[in-house]
Amino acid sequence: xxxxxxxxxxxxxxxxxxxxxxxxxxxxxxxxxxxxxxxxxxxxxxxxxxxxxxxxxxxxxxxxxxxxxxxxxxxxxxxxxxxxxxxxxxxxxxxxxxxxxxxxxxxxxxxxxxxxxxxxxxxxxxxxxxxxxxxxxxxxxxxxxxxxxxxxxxxxxxxxxxxxxxxxxxxxxxxxxxxxxxxxxxxxxxxxxxxxxxxxxxxxxxxxxxxxxxxxxxxxxxxxxxxxxxxxxxxxxxxxxxxxxxxxxxxxxxxxxxxxxxxxxxxxxxxxxxxxxxxxxxxxxxxxxxxxxxxxxxxxxxxxxxxxxxxxxxxxxxxxxxxxxxxxxxxxxxxxxxxxxxxxxxxxxxxxxxxxxxxxxxxxxxxxxxxxxxxxxxxxxxxxxxxxxxxxxxxxxxxxxxxxxxxxxxxxxxxxxxxxxxxxxxxxxxxxxxxxxxxxxxxxxxxxxxxxxxxxxxxxxxxxxxxx
Length: 468
Ligand code: UTP
Known about the structure:
Structural class: alpha/beta
Bound molecules: uridine 5'-triphosphate
């Protein structure tokens, strides 16, 4: 028997056992390389687990009942009293950074569908004056942190099949924005097949390929282990990993206070949170349930619970997830040894596919179930997890939605950058004319104190200015 026929025979019985034989419907029309591609994808798709995952995701938590047992999380609040002072936390974080115990991880495998940008989101031009891309700003921040602590912070960048080649080409062309190449590691996350929303059958995107998409930012756990990045971290002496996402150029990169609180409180996974502005703000809610920290997505938190107030009228469930975390590398290593450390979530989305006759189907309504893992689902696995409050206006401006949208759009992000940099300049005694956009490169100043050291009091900015 020819080898592709042998492969077909092996795989046919597996598919038949799980009601997915249709994946080979066009076998006779495929050439040898197309057959190999299809077989490879079917092997990677863990067909035997698709049905289980689908059923498990449908039996999802009864958040309404869980939320009623929730209490606010263990947190270090801005202006709140705590047993660890902010100065002590910063000193501990500074020391860990200086000892080279911190690595950084950027997850950049998402498809950015809401933004509607066909390239990897990191290439999106966001600098209000410079036009710098998200990648440029984030990489320059990391470069500046390395200069401040006189030791480079190794960066692990997670891409996906959807973003890998374009990200690598771009970063190479830009020479990694000055980061040392031996301190940057790109690795690719896994994929999951999409299934038909009514039949549960895996969709084909063509006669020789499954409809595959990235397996969520939680895919980071398995991908880090598969790419030997966890071993690389241990070899480099990295004990803590600072996690951030590609869409927030305001992130306080390697925030020493967050890192310090993490270390001093013996946390295994820590999260920067912002105080929600109102009960229905679209942020994941960080809570404690039965002694474990968890995130309840905004759509799962019952309205009456979301609206609960403290005596002073503030929200009881105040902690909104910014998707900035610090992990113990040992914790990630422990979790990566179990295939079930992270559950799959399902989402009903529009997926382009072919039908049983091979005709293309572009559905106008969501037609498919996609499976994704979320990294924040590791929180309950942590023996100790803490939350550190961050100032939303200064540290959090994600680019999620298309230009022109009122929330989390490029426009709101640019406005937040301008407001912050104006504040830094004004704190240095400069004057910024009303309505004048100003932007500060991380290589000029990483924070207000660095800006004050470089700006002459009294200087006037009355036209768009980029300080670099
Ligand atoms: P989002 O959840 O906002 O998704 O990702 P997205 O793909 O960027 O945008 P939409 O939902 O399609 O509009 C948050 C972060 O997680 C990364 C993204 O690149 C972003 O940094 N991510 C998301 C991954 O790395 N892999 C994924 O599979 C999904």
